[in-house]
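SAMPLE LOG
Freezer: B-3
Tube label: C17
Construct: single chain, 232 aa
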Amino acid sequence: MTSDKDTDFRDVLTRDFDTETIDNPQTGEKVSLWLALSIIFLLIVVFGVSALIVQRVYFKPPVIRTAVERDLIRYTDAIKQNPRDAESYVGLAGVYLEIEQPRKAIDALNTAISLKPRSWNAHFEMGMALDANGQTSDAVGHFWQAAAIDPNNELSHYQLGRLYEKQRLYGQAIQAYKDTLRINPTLSDAHYYLGSCYEKTNKRGLAKQEYREALKYVDNYPEAEKALKRLE
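STRUCTURE (predicted):
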């Protein structure tokens, strides 16, 4: 026989149990939501930090230490933006020549000349690149083309003189130096090398005159002073 007290006790237990089973799922949902948000926030932080690390390690901006590096980047970027910009290829070739990579300079200048066949700069720099690469005869042809494009630019004639003198073609070198000085009579180096060619062809009087002219425009020119003393 069950007493009323026992019945009341079972009712209390049953009521408490039912409340527990109803409240716990709600509490569990709140815990699960908080945990999910925490995980999402943590993942965002992790991905953000990872992105910064990747950017710093793999996508570091170039460190420019010298003017040559700056020019190399500038001309390379210019070519990327406009692959048909002949002058950018000429500029790039100049950088390659400065860092003693004439083969790369020649490749860049071939592109420049194909884009702009009448470019004085391209032919002149090609002459310089070919000479640096040991292709003296080919270099002469490009200096001649540069001189034909701009006859009043003394640099093409001067470089022709230097190449002819290197090949011991003194008569042609003398003419090239004369053409140089006709355009720019104040170029001391042209006077000095013209004097050198005269001396090598036994024209001592003309050689001394040119050495004096070299000293006229540059006071401190040890090579010209030494050559003049040798002939006097």
